[in-house]
Amino acid sequence: MRRRESLTLDMTPLVDVVFLLLIFFLVTSVFKKDELALLLNLPEGKEGGQMVKRKEVIIEMGEDTLAYNGRPIDFKTLDKELGAIVEKRLPVIIRIDEKVEYGRIIKLFDMLKKHRLSNIALVEKAKK
Predict the structure, then answer these.
(1) For strand 66-68 and strand 71-72, is the pairing parallel, antiparallel, or unpaired?
(2) DSSP tag of 18
(3) Residue 67: which residues within 8 A CB-CB, separation 6 or more?
(4) 84-104: per-residue pLDDT in tens?
(5) Residue 125, Cβ density class (10 Å: 0-12 exposed, 13-18 middle, ≥19 buried)
(6) What does the domain layout of the chain look like in residue ranges?
């Protein structure tokens, strides 16, 4: 009589494949900073400024998009958010794409002036 050998599945190749997939996804992933919601092409300045990390308001403006502290928003909601700011000396960091229409920029600055937010910093592309 012949004995039947039990069949077992070799797990080594399967574990290798799982690790390779894990490495692939880690290498191809893009890790985004929370405060940067829009991909903007910033104008380049001659002098590079330094930013100090502390509590601040971050506004990003694209050609037809707007973001407030890392989340997309429209002008009407932005007006409400800016009106809710109690500390008027809070730094307002503004990132504006170089292709944004001038009228949209003026609308943003008028809104900041209306809510008496005057501690404004415009971010430029770092010099290479």
Answers:
(1) antiparallel
(2) H
(3) 37, 38, 58, 59, 60, 61, 73
(4) 988 888 899 999 998 999 999
(5) middle
(6) 33-128
